[in-house]
Amino acid sequence: MARPSDSDTNLPFPILIGDIGGTNARFALLVDAFAEPRSFPIVKTADFANIDEALQRSILDTTSVQPRSAILALAGPIEGDEVPLTNCPWVVRPRDMIGKLGFEDVVLVNDFEAQALAIASLSDTDREKIGGGGERPAASRAVLGPGTGLGVAGLVHARHAWFPVPGEGGHVDMGPRTERDYQIWPFLEPIEGRISAEQLLCGRGIMNIYRAVSAADGDDPVLATPADVTARALAQEDRAAIETIALFSTYLGRVAGDIAMIFMAKGGVYLAGGISQKILPALRGPEFRAAFEDKAPHTALLRSIPTYVVTHPVAALVGLAAFARMPERFGVATEGRRWKR
Ligand SMILES: Nc1ncnc2c1ncn2[C@@H]1O[C@H](COP(=O)(O)OP(=O)(O)OP(=O)(O)O)[C@@H](O)[C@H]1O
């Protein structure tokens, strides 16, 4: 009978690792602690009725290696034996994975916990530095990821290990600060009266800012998707789109600076999520870093903190692979989220 276990011992290889978001699921297989991860094509969650079918058809049917355990990062809170995903109809049932797919051991973690694991070990080829001082290898770090939503996590170094600290930091309050903010704010769409960071800093947030900029100027919004807005902005073709992405960069810098102060993240603040990579040229501009540093009385502190855009295409899998190989390097508690045969 599969039961949640509180044991923190190593998982048996081969280990399947997976990062399952609202839109895409990315998987890789670790045959042993030393081999390079074998990756599989990214699958669309909408193409499969459930995760078991996706694993069977896109992984298990395509390899002779039978994974003995799985570590899956999920976009959603992990509670109980049935875990529904945010923004996707899949429900992950570890007991079914053990009973039907041949796994002996299944661990579930939060998707931003996996992003935090990743930033412990990304090399310079997997990140681009956007300002700030030098590296401090043992200092705390933080990661923010604008994508379908806004994920946030800290990464604390203690007792020779890295401890990921996932939370709901994407839902902190945002307020107007500049004169232009005060013009735009009345037109932003709130949730129950509140403008949270996630109302601005995700795909939906790009549209929220774009429509508010247009409304504040008395213009009709003509662009329909976040990709349209960023494409026009990066091509310097549309005034409202250009301002939208400049404001997005400013607001992302403000929140990133706040998160840096909360975690005292002298080791750096990392921007993950699909959108950071897509607007990288804009993040290299002055707005992001200026807003990040504009934190009197702590301007000098913030100036010293490096910021990075994560450029690795599947960073969460890098984090999960590092954890699978050397769990003792990380303070990841598996109580209540590990199931064994
Ligand atoms: N070129 C683009 N510029 C800005 N935003 C974009 C662009 N293309 C897609 N988006 C938006 O990015 C969001 C998806 O982000 P991302 O790719 O990080 O997904 P995610 O949250 O990791 O999702 P998942 O892991 O569920 O697939 C969507 O809101 C989408 O509208």
UniProtKB/TrEMBL annotation:
It is found in: Cytoplasm. It is an enzyme of class 2 (transferase). InterPro entries: ATPase_NBD (IPR043129), Bacterial_glucokinase (IPR050201), Glucokinase (IPR003836). GO terms for molecular function: glucokinase activity. CDD domains: ASKHA_NBD_GLK. Keywords: ATP-binding, Cytoplasm, Glycolysis, Kinase, Nucleotide-binding, Transferase. Pfam families: Glucokinase. It catalyses: D-glucose + ATP = D-glucose 6-phosphate + ADP + H(+). ATP binds at residues 18-23. It comes from the Bacteria. Its EC number is 2.7.1.2. Belongs to the bacterial glucokinase family. NCBIfam families: glk, PRK00292.1-4. This is Glucokinase.
